[in-house]
Design goal:
2 copies of one chain form a homodimer. Chain A is α+β, with helices and mostly antiparallel strands and about 180 residues long. Helices cover about 30% and strands about 15% of the residues of chain A. Chain A has 7 helices and 6 strands; from the N terminus they run ααβααβββααβαβ. In chain A, helix 2 packs antiparallel against helix 5.
């Protein structure tokens, strides 16, 4: 699939089929995450591939009752959880090197978007789930001290892709040379 | 270009030619950023397209003297700066909704990686620059209170793509069901 097609057509999928994901496709998708750039190539992420139905059910319980992705944890054959070490990316000699603090969120997002796009090109859905009880998820996944579960995504086949969510037009989000100077007049 | 080709072949480029970037290609690349998903579709990012040579020179000065991307700010015809509003992505009713704080870094990374991949498919280089004096960059770019410059990237043509940086093998970064359980035995 063309890169720009994947970027344009990718949707956040919250309704999955139980159909299994072939192992070789799963490895291609995870390899796309692995190839993501990161702060000073620190690669602070680890990916927990959850296939165990009981663990998926427990993770689903870390989402709020109203979260539309809740059932996806049970239906999709796989949930991928991104764990990241804190205090390393964006740090220099143990000190935060920028006024933006820890870069674990930035680096994990780079990798998880590679994963989401790669999944899409194989006809598989994902959705970046961030709103969950992190402390509980870390317990369930036995994540060591100093690491966080940044985000999770179900991974699986789906019937119909959801409609596109609206985005702000370029006029509203582009500036020229300084903030606030419209790029497109 | 195939999505997986772009993901596999993309490199962080730090040496640029001054050759101008056609406006229609620039717009395609920025549109790829615009289409990125974000926390509750908050789209907290804005993209400042810096073409002014004086501003690029000032931004270059916010990098450390040893940063290999420093000259790129002068050579590349464009520097794109990602500004993001703080306290919105990852928040619910004004409170951080997760134990990972503000999601502005996560969302900006998703958008900037769309941009980097789209640039690559047009034969253009980028590099995520995070290590710079953010306070100075925010002054130069006249970024309002409550916003940060998260990252910047030169954008331009280049002669030879750099060699691939090594990545940890999948064996080291994949776990099954819980943290620490090797996925690949």
């Amino acid at each position: 699939m063309e890169l720009l097609t994947a970027i344009r057509e990718r949707r956040s999928v919250r309704k999955y089929k139980s159909k299994p994901v072939p192992e070789e496709i799963l490895m291609e998708i995870l390899d796309a995450a692995r190839l993501a750039p990161s702060w000073n190539n620190t690669q602070v992420w680890r990916f927990i591939v959850v296939k165990d139905q009981g663990t998926k059910a427990k993770l689903s319980e870390t989402l709020r009752p109203t979260n539309p992705a809740k059932a996806a944890y049970l239906d999709a054959p796989i949930v991928i959880c991104a764990a990241a070490q804190r205090g390393l990316s964006g740090f220099y000699k143990g000190e935060a090197a920028t006024n933006r603090g820890d870069w674990f969120m930035f680096d994990t997002a780079l990798a998880m978007e590679h994963l989401a796009l790669a999944a899409w090109q194989f006809g598989l859905g994902t959705v970046h789930v961030g709103l969950f009880d992190g402390t509980k998820a870390e317990e369930i996944l036995k994540v060591p001290e100093g690491y966080s579960i940044v985000s999770m995504t179900p991974l699986g086949y789906f019937d119909t892709p959801p409609d596109a969510k609206p985005r702000k037009p370029l006029q509203e989000i582009l500036y020229l040379n300084t903030y606030g100077e419209s790029y497109i007049k």
